[in-house]
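INTERNAL TRANSFER SHEET
From: sequence group
To: structure group
Subject: N-acetyltransferase domain-containing protein

Please process the attached sequence and return the structure record in the designated field. Keep the field labels unchanged so the import script can parse them.
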Amino acid sequence: MNKDLAFYYLADKPQYLETIASWYFKEWCEQSGRYSLLEVKQKLEKALNQHSLPLSIVALRGDELVGVAELKFHEMDAYLEYEHWLGGVFVSPSARGANIAKHLVLYLIDQAKRLDIKALYLQTESLGGGLYSKLEFEPLFEADSKGVRVLVMKKEI
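Return from structure group:
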């Protein structure tokens, strides 16, 4: 792992909530109209936890916020049988290409194990699975997620 990279609960670094809300809004909501910036911020505020879901993990390189990812419940309303989800994996554009997303996902898998979660699900717009295939998430099916075609994947942990 990149020795300069450190992970923290967003609950311990709430000063980054506004930046993360802005990242999420611009990446996934601004064009689609799925959520307003205020709604994104309110969803993130629910993830200010350490021992229960939803929770967010931030990645810092020194004092610079470089990434974020979440563990949450029932990300897709159509698939309520799938309980625990990994989502919101985002790396700042200036920090991409340094394997930060990979390290965030691996860290969240460890957090899921700590919470005694047996399987994680995710949705990705990368229909080939991308990073998640490399981390042994198995493709389940393609689906529509609020107007976007996604691949739903699962990993037993």
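Handover comment: The chain is about 25% helix and 35% strand. The longest strand covers residues 64-73.
Transfer complete.
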